[in-house]
């Protein structure tokens, strides 16, 4: 991995993917701040992830709360090198006509608004880092949306579009800077999965094969691996993790 220890923020840290990602970064010797909305859950998740993982509580759907979060993190570290955004959610229906407005409102907040807030607040950190990385997790449903999953696929598509715009911002500020071009050193990427799989799901359904699913440990390895690859190669890419 490039350089010395990194400081990484993992949002959506209470779920199994957040625990896996936080643990993998911590085991690699990096400082991790894992973020959740529920204090008890994020503290338990951080304890499971490892001693070098710091839990913080934040409502990522509120911009001011994310600014306060960043201020708290900056109080104990010079810079954030990476943000792995794992906040999302799932809503489905039978078809186009019965897509509830409540589902759209929920996914707009969890999948889009949180991403917008986090990327805006931590943009300066990531673009300033010698190895800045920003990543989100999207779905294969974006490329092949179904009527029943219209709301979910549309929300994920919007989140992807925002992330690719962040990638363009990194390019414009670095290798594409007309006045003072520099080597690309920050990258924003989209991880694409069919669905995520963890050990609890395997225990609950030992008879299932889970075809095409991505294990949370594989997602974690891919997240850490972002820092080993050139930013110019990664920036703006959709990285398929579905098997």
From TrEMBL:
<dbReference type="InterPro" id="IPR057326">
    <property type="entry name" value="KR_dom"/>
</dbReference>
<dbReference type="InterPro" id="IPR036291">
    <property type="entry name" value="NAD(P)-bd_dom_sf"/>
</dbReference>
<protein>
    <submittedName>
        <fullName>NADP-dependent 3-hydroxy acid dehydrogenase YdfG</fullName>
    </submittedName>
</protein>
<dbReference type="InterPro" id="IPR051122">
    <property type="entry name" value="SDR_DHRS6-like"/>
</dbReference>
<dbReference type="Pfam" id="PF00106">
    <property type="entry name" value="adh_short"/>
</dbReference>
<dbReference type="InterPro" id="IPR002347">
    <property type="entry name" value="SDR_fam"/>
</dbReference>
<keyword id="KW-0560">Oxidoreductase</keyword>
<comment type="similarity">
    <text>Belongs to the short-chain dehydrogenases/reductases (SDR) family.</text>
</comment>
<feature type="domain" description="Ketoreductase">
    <location>
        <begin position="6"/>
        <end position="174"/>
    </location>
</feature>
<dbReference type="GO" id="GO:0016491">
    <property type="term" value="F:oxidoreductase activity"/>
</dbReference>
């Amino acid at each position: 991995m490039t350089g010395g220890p990194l400081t990484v923020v993992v949002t959506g840290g209470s779920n199994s993917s957040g625990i896996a990602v936080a643990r993998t970064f911590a085991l690699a010797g990096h400082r991790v701040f894992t973020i959740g909305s529920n204090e008890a859950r994020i503290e338990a998740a951080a304890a499971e992830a490892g001693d070098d993982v710091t839990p913080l509580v934040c409502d990522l759907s509120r911009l001011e709360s994310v600014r306060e979060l960043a201020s708290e993190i900056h109080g104990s570290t010079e810079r954030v090198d990476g943000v792995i955004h794992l906040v999302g959610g799932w809503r489905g229906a039978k078809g186009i006509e019965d897509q509830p407005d409540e589902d759209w409102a929920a996914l707009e907040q969890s999948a889009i608004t949180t991403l917008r807030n986090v990327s805006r607040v931590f943009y300066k950190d990531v673009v300033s880092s010698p190895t800045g990385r920003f990543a989100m997790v999207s779905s294969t449903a974006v490329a092949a949306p179904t009527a029943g999953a219209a709301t979910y696929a549309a929300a994920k598509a919007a989140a992807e579009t925002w992330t690719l715009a962040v990638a363009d911002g990194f390019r414009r500020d670095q290798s594409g800077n007309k006045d003072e071009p520099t080597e690309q050193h920050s990258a924003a990427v989209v991880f694409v999965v069919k669905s995520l799989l963890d050990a609890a799901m395997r225990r609950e359904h030992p008879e299932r094969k889970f075809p095409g699913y991505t294990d949370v440990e594989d997602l974690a390895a891919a997240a850490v691996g972002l820092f080993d690859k050139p930013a110019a190669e990664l920036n703006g890419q959709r990285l398929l993790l579905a098997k």
